[in-house]
Amino acid sequence: MDPTSPNPPGWTPAPGSAQEVRLEGDWILDHAMEIAARLREIPEGVAAVDASGVRRIDSAGVMLLARFARQRSLAVDALRFSDRHPALVQGIDDVADDRPARRRDYGFAAALERLGRATHAVGRDIVELLGFTGETRVKLLRLLRQPRRFRMTATVAHMEQVGLDAVPLVALLAYLVGAVIAFLGSTILADFGAEIFVVELVSIAFLREFAVLLTAIVLAGRTASAFTAQIGAMKAREEIDAIRTLGLDPIDLLVIPRLLALLVMLPLLTFVAMMAGLAGGVTVGAFDLEIPPQMYLARMHETLQLRHFLVGLSKAPVFAMVIGLIGCLEGMRVKGTAQSVGERTTSSVVQAISLVIIIDALAALWFMNMGW
Prior knowledge:
Strand order of the largest sheet: 1-2-4-6
Largest sheet: 4 strands, mixed
Number of strands: 6
Radius of gyration: 39 Å
Order of helices and strands: EEEHEEHEHHHHHHHHHH
Helix content: 55-70%
Strand content: 5-15%
Shape: elongated
Structural class: mainly alpha
């Protein structure tokens, strides 16, 4: 008989024993589906399986028989193989026997890995931002020695985009937030009969914190994303490479005009936000607290100190540097695809807003501890 001819697996009851079956045929991987079907046909109550009569058997057949024995709870010696197959059976037993149970994964390792990668990425971003800041400062100082590098037209155009176009939005948000702060403050202070202190609450809060913070957050979402998208699109179209080929400096051409525009316009927008927030407080005082505008302004004039205005305004240039540098840096980091432009635009907004809030919190603590 040709040993390679197909011989499907099968089984027959052992003569004289209702608890034993004999296997026959080829119990190999090619007949795996038929082997599983034949094993399911073996009736319950079988206590021994004689596999010495099979013509051919491989690791798949041995493993299926071992699984059948475990499922039927057969004894260790219930499976009897031919003397030609001891090495194969022993090898399968060594691999499959006493394997440790797989440990349940609760995701801690993956979470730690992601945390480590995120920490490393944050550190890399900080190093890149510091390096980009240093390069930009060096080239800003170079403008003092070489004024011909200054791009007046581009700077004025960005001042219009960054500052004038944002005035309505900044003024509206500041006015509404000022009104909300005055209303909430009056609700609490009314229990103590001290509604008049709403004037100090709104004035100090807006001059020191809210005006510059609101303005910086608006520009971080509006301007940083615009800078990243504009420079990123140029990077994707290889226009920045063309600028370098022409012997021009992308920092001088693209970054410094945007940065100077922010440095000029953010303090001005902060002043607009201060006036709008104070106007919101005056409105709530006149219509809800029965404090006439003249009395409100007189109280503000008596109690307000110039240092609150200077503290708030001193943060504006710092926030302008942070927003401008992050927006331009993320644009420079675009890889050249539309997906990369979107990812870097999102990253610039998140980084700018986060850094603005962190710096504002640290500055507030520092000014308070200094008694300013």
